[in-house]
Write a structure and sequence with these properties.
Blueprint lengths: L17 E5 L5 H7 L4 E6 L11 E4 L2 H13 L1
Parallel strand pairs: 1-2, 2-3
């Protein structure tokens, strides 16, 4: 991806109110770039992925979880 789309230590830092991290492993460089977010929800099928250090996490297939999330939001 272009630099402006890379989030992390060597990319850009973000500080949104809500960040939904979908299928991201959570390498320390990436965690450094998302540290300014107020609330982070991590979705990953690996319960031991580094992104699992975040307080709100969903362990499951990213596509299935997002499809269900979208269905719930549409309701």
């Amino acid at each position: 991806l272009e630099y402006r789309h890379q989030i992390g230590q060597t990319g850009v830092s973000v500080s949104p109110r809500l960040l939904v991290s979908i299928g991201v492993s959570g390498a320390i460089q990436h965690l450094a770039g998302i540290g300014g977010a107020e609330c982070i929800i991590a979705i990953n099928e690996d319960p031991d992925a580094p992104i699992s250090v975040l307080p709100i996490k969903v362990v499951g297939d990213a596509v299935e979880v997002v499809e269900e999330l979208l269905a719930q939001l549409e309701r």
